[in-house]
Amino acid sequence: QVQLVESGGGLVQAGGSLRISCAASGRTFSRSAMGWFRQAPGKEREFVAVVGWSGGLTRYADSVKGRFTISRDNAKNTVYLQMNSLKPEDTAVYYCNAGASIATIIAGNFDSWGQGTQVTVSS
């Protein structure tokens, strides 16, 4: 089992950048695919990005492709989301989660979630 704590959110102007982090505990982190999701007010939670266990494979939602980069540091048990060229529509609570595969992450069917980190992009 992996426990997850998201951090690094904040208020940023449109066009700006922000990096958020997800610290994980548990022995299975380095063997888990890791993903980021977000939930905007009044909307369902949606997939944002995923990285495979080795860091070599990544996938992105079309809405963030070319602007966001997911990465991981297995030595630090941490996964990151670098967000550039932020838009007001990126405003949401961002969550991370762990899964057995990239496909599992993209499916997004998890029983538990962390507290998330709020990202607010002003216009």
Written description of the protein model:
- The chain is mainly beta and 123 residues long.
- The chain has 1 helix and 10 strands.
- The protein has one helix at 102-107; strands spanning 3-7, 10-13, 18-25, 33-39, 46-51, 58-60, 68-73, 78-83, 92-99, 117-122.
- A hairpin with a 6-residue loop joins strand 4 (33-39) and strand 5 (46-51).
- The radius of gyration is 13 Å and the shape is globular.
Query: What sort of overall outline do the alpha carbons produce when their principal axes are compared?
Result: globular
Number of helices: 1
Q: How helix-rich are the residues, as a percent range? A: under 10%
* Biggest sheet character: 6 strands, mixed
Strand content: over 45%
Question: What is the topology, as strand order, of the major beta sheet?
Answer: 2-10-9-4-5-6
Mean pLDDT: 95
- Give the class from helix and strand content and strand pairing: mainly beta
Cα radius of gyration in angstroms: 13 Å
Number of strands: 10
- Ends distance: 39 Å
- Poorly predicted sequence stretches spanning 5 or more consecutive residues: none
Helix-strand pattern = EEEEEEEEEHE
How would you concisely characterize the structure shown here?
The chain has 123 residues and is mostly beta strands. The chain has 1 helix and 10 strands, in the order E-E-E-E-E-E-E-E-E-H-E.
Keywords:
123 residues; six-stranded mixed beta sheet; 1 helix; 10 strands; globular
Record the SSE blueprint:
Layout: E1 3-7, E2 10-13, E3 18-25, E4 33-39, E5 46-51, E6 58-60, E7 68-73, E8 78-83, E9 92-99, H1 102-107, E10 117-122
Parallel strand pairs: 2-10
Antiparallel strand pairs: 1-3, 3-8, 4-5, 4-9, 5-6, 7-8, 9-10
